[in-house]
Specification:
Distance between the termini: 8 Å
Order of helices and strands: HH
Shape: elongated
Number of domains: 1
Number of helices: 2
Largest sheet: none
Number of strands: 0
Length: about 90
């Protein structure tokens, strides 16, 4: 195992993490901004109002994107298992 291999492996791991977490974080950010604007316009300062739309949006997003996320994670896992033979030499 050389430095190039380690850098490539870590880069792939970080890229896979960003690909999986990106949509969830983006939807949560957009929902937070929308709720924040709604609260500023209506002067409603209810704390639970910020959590419920975010939770519902994340649940809907996970229902929609979960098969794709599992496929991405499975392909990364298979890639890592295939690299075990390379590292063991």
């Amino acid at each position: 195992m050389n430095e190039q291999f380690a850098i490539k492996f870590i880069t792939d791991a970080i890229y896979t993490t960003m690909i999986i977490a990106g949509p969830i974080l983006l939807v949560t950010l957009v929902m937070g901004l929308m709720v924040g604007v709604f609260q500023a316009v209506t002067s409603i300062n209810e704390m639970t109002l910020t959590f419920i739309p975010k939770i519902l949006a994340v649940i809907v997003l996970l229902i929609i994107l979960l098969p794709w996320m599992i496929q991405v994670l499975m392909s990364f896992t298979v890639h890592v298992f295939n690299l075990i033979g390379t590292v063991a030499r």
